[in-house]
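Deliverable D5.2: sample structural annotation.
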Amino acid sequence: QVQLVESGGGLVQAGGSLRLSCAASGRTFSGGWFRQAPGKEREFVAAISWSGGNTYYADSVKGRFTISRDNAKNTVYLQMNSLKPEDTAVYYCAARAGYGLRSGPEAYDYWGQGTQVTVSS
């Protein structure tokens, strides 16, 4: 069983930046980030292929967020720039035991515990 541990969340002012990290205890394949705001369903943010050569973003974060990975460290990152108050949520990393980019949470096999990101206006 692979475990995922997120870090890097916190409080930031609008327009600021944060970088989230997701360290895996073992090998995973495609990775992704999701977020869930209070009273809302979990939503897709970004996904990355095992090689890192392919990425996919939700329209709401495209151009502001960048997903990347370092397979030597079994770690996936989410660089978040130009943050907005509406980005406030608990951010979850997820990983698949297979290839291919997916935006649906049901496609992911492993989940982290979540890290809070709060953007103040």
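Annotation notes: The radius of gyration is 13 Å. The longest strand covers residues 18-24.
The annotation will be released with the project's public dataset once the embargo ends.
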